[in-house]
Amino acid sequence: MRAGHGAGHGHDHGDPAAMRPVAEHAAAVAALLHPTATETVPLAQARGRVLAEDLVSPHPLPPFANSAMDGYAVRAADLADVPVALPVAADVPAGRTDGPPLAAGTAHRIMTGAAMPDGADAVVQVEWTDAGTETVAVERAVAAGQNVRGAGEDVTAGQVVLPAGTLLGPAQIGLAAAVGVGAVPVRRRPRVLVLSTGSELVAPGEPLQHGQIHESNGPMLAAAVDDAGGRGELLRFVPDDVEQFTRTLDDALAARSDDPVDLVLTSGGVSAGAYEVVKDAFSRTRSEAEPDHRDGRGVAFTKVAMQPGMPQGSGHHRGPTGDVAVVTLPGNPVSSLVSFEVFVRPALRRALGHPQPDRPRVRARLAEALDSPAGRRQLRRGRIDAVAGTVAPVGGAGSHLLAALARADCLLVVDEDTTHVPAGETVEVWLLDG
Amino acid sequence: MRAGHGAGHGHDHGDPAAMRPVAEHAAAVAALLHPTATETVPLAQARGRVLAEDLVSPHPLPPFANSAMDGYAVRAADLADVPVALPVAADVPAGRTDGPPLAAGTAHRIMTGAAMPDGADAVVQVEWTDAGTETVAVERAVAAGQNVRGAGEDVTAGQVVLPAGTLLGPAQIGLAAAVGVGAVPVRRRPRVLVLSTGSELVAPGEPLQHGQIHESNGPMLAAAVDDAGGRGELLRFVPDDVEQFTRTLDDALAARSDDPVDLVLTSGGVSAGAYEVVKDAFSRTRSEAEPDHRDGRGVAFTKVAMQPGMPQGSGHHRGPTGDVAVVTLPGNPVSSLVSFEVFVRPALRRALGHPQPDRPRVRARLAEALDSPAGRRQLRRGRIDAVAGTVAPVGGAGSHLLAALARADCLLVVDEDTTHVPAGETVEVWLLDG
């Protein structure tokens, strides 16, 4: 039998006054991740990416004056006395690149979007004419400039059309394409290695023996990383001991040195248990007196004043290609995902330059009373009724109820100094949107 | 010179009374698309997909009674007279599959998540003991069941943990994994062929000649399809004539017969212009008297009572492998994307079984007055201030201002019978979120 339990533990109790405030741990995690580098991707792969540099239009948009209507390009002065018949001297479909100039007293048949001929200053729409092809009878006059879209009316040459930090959706991709940009500089998606290491864990799809459970944190956290804009990659192995854990991790990091890992994310293995390989591996040479040292095992384990999600860790691991950021999350699936929401997701999105690193936050009235521990920030899973403006907790405070988590569409936040919130009171809500 | 203009046209005016109501055209587009088939994907690829069938847990969760604490598994009755010292007869780390039963009067050292030994009915947390490894001194009694998570407390065997139609995010993937499911049945993502066919269009990244513009609708609509949960694929070609257009489209459809195209999406080429190959190709054998016939060119072109986005079309094309749905959108980029939002996105998401086919809709106070044409539903681009509860139009009513569209985060909806909305009045807002 091994040595007795250490002082640290992962239970859901403890002295709140000695715990790290949520904001302090969030800042520590955010500080681990640096802004990601720039890479250039074709527009077809740009959706959901964050623009790394201002996008400047090299030319005006529209690039040339063009017709806003199907009709006839004319000189407005030639329509002073309507009705009037004008010879149709040319045909200007959209895309015609060699359109001749317009002679006085003539009209060119023109399509929407086609370049205005030199000499023309207005378009008379087909509905105001007899739609003639040799000669056109025009019934109503137009003013100079009428039905003409001027060059640069939408965008001028040299204009910043999309500032750095823009999230690229369909409209932004359309605008980039319209100004002629076929590939855009975007921030690299942070690469996150999600470790699944518990000896009790069996991959989903494999049969269970008594005492084993299916591993859920790995697929869940890898999906959460992807959802945040990163690239989650699951590495599943059961370490025999600290040396083998470190060797396996270092091999994985070395194999990815061409496109290095930005963050190693673990869950579980960090409470007081006697078999806590992850904690041992990341902390065994760490000095309590030097929590920030960089001797290769610089992960600080801490209790954070929140429920769920008290046992947290953050720091660096000295890998084969340099220091790599490490965040350790609690092992319980609900604690793990809630901790990811509070600490990791905003940090990843900040590293990505995302314009909205945090979840949308609203306030809603509580549908039923709830209690919360003194000195700890509670994050309850909830369902919001946007029409009624109310939010109801789902699944109670218990951190192991994964089925309730999967029904939640928001988190309810109860502050550290609040121990009871009556029904009808307003609380902060983070929207998890689908 | 070709024949004169036809009766139809794509200009942003016309008789509203003769136009098709927005809801009617939306229903026609929705009716084109059938619910997509089911395919099974591994959890690692399931994020963002819609579950096709109820997911039933094959076993309870937790699968066995386990410890909620690091501590000692005991019989509560043995702690009737605390303090008491008990021999530590076994060690039960999480994942141990061969734990022996607990003999009366003994304790097993147990870790969080480890299976409760037969005969034990409670766990005393390590903090209430001397943490001994040979013998443990227990200071406080526990009740039967204390610190034990019962089998099936989260999920019972046979329970529907995720109903069909669930959108799979990290929590839902975690739950599927936890109940042992490694791959899930999801709805196939609709495959959409986006055609870019204008003779004036040049691919982004290529140089422009006078009269040409960079093609933006294709990349924009392909991204919008992806954003809606479909698979957008851009097919860019300049048809010489109707025959060559049809041949190129049919070749593309035939080449995809293994994974057939669900929808052909075009933009432009459907107004009154003399060079409207797309419209000609889809409508040339169509009889006005039989708008719903299926002779292979069953696309009906119509004017819809909205601004922007009046010229619309929907129907079927008889391709080499059968009928394929066709939706034709207006060519102007802003009209095109707004029309996609109104008609195509909800239809694609319905076909996918998405639980929320429509954009989130809220109401907000208008920051400035706006005008809207009588008899047509106006969709203005806007920016919402969620804190103030206000929304401001961006870029005016002009449908060609792509830069303004790219700054918008919502659409404002002004009803058909409203021609003026004063500042401060409440309007419907569709949130485009990112």
From TrEMBL, chains A, B:
SMART domains: MoCF_biosynth. Keywords: Magnesium, Metal-binding, Molybdenum, Molybdenum cofactor biosynthesis, Transferase. The keyword Metal-binding applies. It is an enzyme of class 2 (transferase). It catalyses: adenylyl-molybdopterin + molybdate = Mo-molybdopterin + AMP + H(+). Its EC number is 2.10.1.1. Its cofactor is Mg(2+). Catalyzes the insertion of molybdate into adenylated molybdopterin with the concomitant release of AMP. This is Molybdopterin molybdenumtransferase. It comes from Actinomycetospora chlora.
